[in-house]
Design goal:
Elements (H helix, E strand, L loop, with lengths): L8 E4 L4 H17 L3 E7 L15 H25 L5 E7 L2 H9 L4 E5 L13 H9 L4 E4 L13 E4 L4 H17 L3 E7 L2 H4 L10 H16 L2 H4 L5 E7 L2 H9 L4 E5 L13 H9 L4 E4 L4
InterPro entries: Rossmann-like_a/b/a_fold (IPR014729), Universal_stress_UspA (IPR006015), UspA (IPR006016)
Pfam families: Usp
GO molecular function: ATP binding
């Protein structure tokens, strides 16, 4: 898309294994998007080191932190270029708060990527708050990289996108189609809808025409796909409408996906408030990277 011309894929680097995995994923994505890769590292500024007697750490140590950061980026650059020779790799090293740094870079980014590790533990400079703040406030889509480490080899697994008919859901669909086309893979468009158990209507289910209800839910998916399928005729689409708990349904489909794409806010429980239980479930427990999309501010 023209709005993304020249926009880099940004990745936060902190020296951890999770950050290296995120960098490798970001590098592969940048190659497929014909975009440069921007490695971002944030080191603490002087204010971080004020102690109880208000004594500031000396400038030499701050310089050492900056040099350490550049060394991390040197190692990361070597790793991604081994996978993708010829990739344009840039860097941005500065002091301050990591989330603020990434949010600022997101203004001109195609995607911002960060690493995640373990059973829901987000690995970054601020023990999780950086990832959550970046996902919540970034101006570009944010990828929380989970699952098996990325490889340089092509991945033929599909991309999964969750839809609910909202405006940001449409944004997620646009991103998912663009990435599926760039990756050369199929797209699973998944919509989960609440039935009698989720609504607490088991006692009144005989009064509900669930067939008609389901048809209405299928129409949501059709509306999401109207027009955009013609823009990406190269992308095979598998549209799925199923009854169930949103997070459970999306996590189940994510087991066979290379990427799960969702919007940051939705119409009801499918793509609820960013920091709600569904989004946190996906970001913390998906078996693959999760791309969270929001309208650019």
């Amino acid at each position: 898309m023209s709005e993304h011309a020249g926009a880099p894929v940004v990745v936060g680097v902190d020296g951890s294994r999770a950050a290296l995995d995120a960098a490798r994923w970001a590098a592969g994505t940048a190659v497929r998007l014909h975009a440069p890769l921007l490695l971002a590292h944030t080191y603490p500024d002087e204010a971080t080191f004020y102690n109880g007697t208000a004594m500031m750490i000396d400038a030499q140590f701050i310089q050492e932190l900056r040099e350490d950061g550049n060394s991390m980026l040197d190692a990361t650059t070597a790793a991604v270029l081994q996978d993708h020779p010829g990739l344009a790799v840039e860097r941005d090293v500065r002091s301050g708060a990591a989330a603020s740094h990434l949010i600022e870079l997101s203004r001109a980014a195609r995607i911002v990527a960060l690493g995640a590790q373990g059973a829901g533990a987000v690995t970054d400079y601020l023990l999780g708050s950086t990832v959550l703040r970046t996902v919540n406030h970034a101006h570009s889509p944010v990828a929380v990289v989970r699952g098996e480490p990325a490889t340089a080899a092509p991945d033929t697994r599909p991309i999964v996108v969750g839809v609910d008919g909202s405006q940001v859901s449409e944004k997620a669909v646009e991103e998912a189609f663009a990435l599926a086309s760039a990756f050369g893979v199929g797209l699973d468009v998944v919509h989960a809808w609440s039935g009698e158990k989720q609504h607490g209507l088991a006692h009144a289910s005989k009064y509900v025409d669930w067939t008609a209800y389901e048809e209405g839910e299928k129409a949501i998916v059709s509306e999401c796909l109207a027009g955009i399928r013609d823009e990406y005729p190269d992308v095979p689409v598998n549209a799925v409408t199923t009854q169930g708990v949103s997070a459970d349904v999306l996590l189940r489909h994510a087991t066979r996906a290379q990427l799960l794409v969702v919007g940051s806010h939705g119409r009801g429980k499918v793509l609820g408030a960013l920091l709600g239980s569904v989004s946190q479930n996906l970001v913390h427990h998906a078996p693959c990277p999760v791309l969270v999309c929001r309208a650019r501010q």
